[in-house]
Design the sequence.
């Protein structure tokens, strides 16, 4: 559990500027973490915390000044650890439907008596980490199983376009038929959007947009989202769960800012009522739900505030951040850390601190108030690295956070595969273009991709050209790099936000 906490909070150290501590922890992890242990582990949690945390730390290592091995980012000890952990999860996906079991034994695989019932989020929350792993290692098995699981959920949605909360991964029968955007479902929707942005995947985005229509039609009431029966659309639970507070941030990623702000303000009123978000909140009664009054310092509302502030610069979002800092400091701070609030009605504390407080809550708060953090890079700065497959551009921005707030650099996915012959031809054309630009002073803002989204440009020329533009222009210049570049025909992603044609 200590190693898990280290991995889960590692990239937070770098984002908060504690480079030396990041380096120290990486060195500790590089000595080896043993996954050959007789332990039953959550497939979902192991992926988002261990695999996601190791991938993020691997990709950020060079930026932090850690000495990386030749061939990085296509090789490295943290990448090998992430791959080893992910391989331990693969037996869970060996089901007739391709949907994984919820738990796997790291040494023996799936236990014979393992329940086949898994929550929707536990099935649909792999594409970000597993696709990244496949692209970095060259082994397609990880992305393949993640995609198969996503498509199985899509195939088994109801006639009105909704998915339930728990499903039998052997028979594909829905066991819990409550449909909503919160616990048990949440990160499935999140990964359709983030997977679409990360991989430039039209199919994943189309899935989400179809779900979004059904969610608006059947679960949305006065900018709240309730729980409904997945086949009938009738209300089953008129409650708001704190885990649902990620939704406004997700809406911002598809450009639905107005709806996102209205929903965010509803959630913010609950925060102001209690000094935090209770796990469950009864919307008609305007109060907490019995035995769900706790607040384990969850990050979701702060996460949404960060995304929305980047999109709108609305000072209301900074007010939430200020309230969160003051509330957490006043209510939950203890000598050795920050304690879970057991009951928001009287602010009694529990004797525990969740690792997601360090991995997510603190990170999103910091990023909300730090506009110059490298995570917010708009492409005006970048690094060029040499891999066995040629030159590669990294750290240009557009980071995709997994659901445990571990940032993945989308550009890294294009560093570790052989380029097609056509791309070399395009690179020659780009070099010629840059040469013309230097002599004729052409204005160049963006470069479109060729083929499967791999950038076709000479990083050396791009770097020198950017420098020239910066010196000769009083206005803020645009980088020659657009990272990640978009291959969507009907959508455009800018700085991590996807905008539809009609927005």
Sequence:
């Amino acid at each position: 559990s200590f190693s898990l906490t280290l991995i889960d909070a590692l990239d937070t150290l770098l984002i908060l500027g504690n480079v030396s501590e990041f380096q120290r922890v990486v060195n500790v992890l590089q000595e080896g973490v043993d996954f050959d242990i007789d332990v039953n582990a959550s497939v979902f949690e192991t992926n988002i915390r261990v695999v996601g945390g190791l991938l993020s730390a691997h990709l950020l290592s060079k930026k932090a000044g850690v000495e990386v091995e030749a061939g990085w980012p296509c090789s490295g000890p943290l990448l090998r650890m992430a791959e080893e952990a992910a391989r331990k999860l693969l037996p869970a996906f060996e089901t007739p439907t391709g949907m994984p079991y919820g738990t796997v034994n790291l040494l023996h695989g799936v236990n014979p008596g393992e329940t086949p019932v898994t929550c929707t989020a536990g099935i649909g929350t792999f594409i970000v980490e597993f696709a990244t792993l496949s692209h970095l290692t060259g082994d397609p098995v990880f992305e393949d199983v993640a995609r198969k699981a996503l498509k199985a959920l899509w195939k088994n949605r109801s006639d009105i376009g909704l998915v339930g909360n728990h499903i039998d991964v052997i028979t594909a029968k829905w066991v819990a038929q409550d449909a909503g955007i919160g616990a048990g479902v949440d990160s499935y929707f999140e990964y359709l959007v983030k997977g679409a942005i990360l991989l430039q995947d039209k199919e994943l985005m189309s899935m989400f947009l179809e779900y979004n229509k059904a969610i608006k039609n059947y679960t949305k009431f006065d900018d709240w989202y309730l729980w409904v029966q997945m086949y009938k659309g009738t209300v089953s639970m008129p409650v708001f769960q704190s885990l649902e507070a990620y939704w406004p941030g997700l809406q911002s990623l598809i450009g639905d800012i107005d709806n996102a702000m209205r929903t965010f303000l509803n959630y913010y009123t609950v925060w102001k009522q209690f000094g935090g978000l209770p796990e469950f909140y009864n919307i008609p009664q305007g109060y907490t739900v019995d035995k769900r009054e706790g607040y384990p310092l969850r990050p979701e509302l702060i996460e949404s505030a960060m995304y929305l502030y980047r999109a709108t610069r609305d000072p209301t979002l900074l007010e939430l951040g200020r309230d969160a800092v003051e509330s957490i400091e006043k209510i939950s701070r203890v000598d050795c850390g920050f304690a879970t609030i057991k009951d928001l009605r009287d602010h009694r504390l529990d004797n525990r601190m969740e690792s997601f407080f360090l991995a997510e809550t603190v990170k999103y708060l910091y990023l909300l108030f730090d506009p110059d953090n490298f995570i917010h890079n708009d492409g005006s700065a970048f690094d060029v690295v040499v891999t066995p497959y040629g030159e590669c551009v990294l750290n240009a921005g557009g980071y995709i956070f997994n659901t445990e707030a571990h940032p993945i650099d989308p550009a890294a996915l294009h560093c570790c595969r052989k380029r097609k012959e056509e791309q070399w031809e395009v690179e020659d054309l780009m070099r010629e273009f840059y040469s013309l630009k230097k002599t004729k002073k052409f204005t160049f803002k963006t470069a479109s991709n060729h083929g499967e989204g791999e950038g076709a440009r000479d990083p050396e020329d791009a770097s020198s050209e950017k420098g020239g533009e910066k010196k000769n222009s009083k206005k803020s210049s645009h980088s020659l790099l657009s990272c990640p570049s978009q291959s969507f025909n009907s959508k455009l992603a800018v700085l991590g936000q996807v905008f539809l044609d009609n927005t």
